[in-house]
Amino acid sequence: MNQWPADEGAAHRRAQIAILEAFNEEKSPEEVRQALLYAATEANLDFK
User: Fold this and answer.
1) Cα distance between the two ends of the chain
2) Residue 38 in contact with residue 15, Cβ under 8 Å?
């Protein structure tokens, strides 16, 4: 996420936190996936 195409928005920051929390087993892979999808949508990335 160091080369994210847009300015950091709220969803981007939540995705970063979700990734860190997954390493600590506080978030599930599905929760991280959802956070990344929201961040991608916020950044207008085409991921479909």
Assistant:
1) 18
2) yes
Is residue 7 classed as helix, strand or coil in its secondary structure? coil
Split into its structural domains, the chain has a count of: 1
Identify the domain containing residue 36 by its residue range: 10-42
Longest pairwise C-alpha distance within the chain: 29
- 2 pLDDT higher than 70: no
In contact, 34 and 24? CB cutoff 8 Å: no
CA distances in angstroms from 8 to 2, 25, 28, listed in the order given: 10, 25, 23
44: Cα within 13 Å, side-chain hemisphere: 3
- The mean predicted confidence, pLDDT, of the chain is 88
Assigned domain for 37 exists = yes
